[in-house]
Amino acid sequence: DSKKADDTIIGIQKKIKELEYNLKNLVEFTIFWFQNLKEKYGKNFPRKTEIRSFNTIEATKVVVANEKLYVNYEEGFIGTGLKKDEFVCNCSDIDDIIVFFKDGTYKIVKVDEKIFVGKNILYLNVFKKNDKRTIYNAVYRSGKKGPFYIKRFAVTGITRDKEYDLTKGEEGSRVFYFTANPNGEAEVIRVTLKPKPRLRKLVFEKDFSDIAVRGRQAQGNILTKKAVHRITLKQKGGSTLGGRHVWFDWDVLRLNYDKRGDYLGEFSGEDLVLVITTNGEYRTTDFDLSNHFESNVLAVKKYNPDKVWTVVYYNADQKYYYLKRFQLEPSDNLLSFLGDNPDSKLVLISGKTYPRIEVVFGGEDASKEALDVDADEFIGVKGFKAKGKRLTTYEVEEINELEPIRSKSEKETGKNEDSESDKIEDTNDDSKSDKKTADANEEASNKNEEKINPKKLIDDITGQMSLFDD
Fold this sequence. Notes:
Blueprint: H1 2-24, H2 26-41, H3 59-62, E1 67-72, E2 77-79, E3 86-91, E4 96-101, E5 105-110, E6 115-116, E7 121-127, E8 135-141, E9 148-153, E10 164-165, E11 174-181, E12 188-193, E13 203-207, E14 213-214, E15 221-224, E16 228-235, E17 244-249, E18 254-256, E19 262-267, E20 273-277, E21 281-285, E22 297-302, E23 309-315, E24 320-326, E25 335-336, E26 345-350, E27 356-361, E28 371-374, H4 375-378, E29 381-382, E30 389-390, E31 396-402, H5 408-418, H6 420-448, H7 454-462
């Protein structure tokens, strides 16, 4: 026992010396201790995070727009604290605001609770730097009695709090017509001139799509040299810039316009992005670059409401594999197309027109020949919440997608040949229908397009009253 006690004492003395040494060399010991953690415990705690690269983040693009911008047109104030005044748009507390005035001047200011920008405010909104899609359409008078100019321009980047001018800068200039178009839309305007002796044409129209988009400092094209009574909108137009080409970068799970990742297509207006996850859920969203995507994304596509999706999944309730075909409805929230049971698993999803599915059997049924399924013939298109049709009751080893043997054009050709007589009848009906539609449109156009009476127009402008109706 005495020997055992001596060995214990010697062991304690060694530990004391080791501890004293570590205390004297605390930095080196700490580094060694942390380096030894992975070797000692790493096998029991595998990495669960995913290593992914990061893209360049601009705060103004990702910050939440949790503030509301208001304006007091009469006093010339704007800000997020003017709750009793007119609401303009949502914004964040780090946004810049672009403000246009009736004399043609404009500037950008930092958003604040209350800030005086000046009276005679014409338009204001959140300013997006390097935005070449937002096009401003304007008609202005140069000076007090100068000609009227029409111009289209973009404001991509200007200095904060510095005043700029969309006119030629002459005293007395005034903006008569102004619109901001987020996707380069171009409208048709109606210009009414002031009556003048020997002036025959008092009203004419101008299409902004005929005007090229130039720099903000360009003076524009001469619209008219005569005095203008008023300018009104006649017809709204579409975008003159075309759609926006969008890509999806799988490294950072973000959309971009810089050709990084998979090309999704050309987007414009109300087009949507379809997001499908690995657990059988989907949602739709717009193509804004600030959108965030789930970490378990399986596919990101341009949304097409007419596209038919084919899905094979394991139904946890029935304990069998099912096949279903459906079209997806737009939804801001995640919706499951596998049912309510969270144990149901997505096996494959295909967007091909006529997909073929191969079912390979296993276990006691391994000797059976693989099943070749033509999805289009196997089941019709139903709602995405439908259960679908069971593929087999045998034990399944694996399920694969095969190359289709039919093309869309072949099936359409067959249908056309089988229903040639019906097609002729339909064509005749369509021609009659088109004629009725054309007549109706012409009649509606005649109603909307009021015939302008020059005498009555002059009386309206000058304030004269007519004793007798024409």
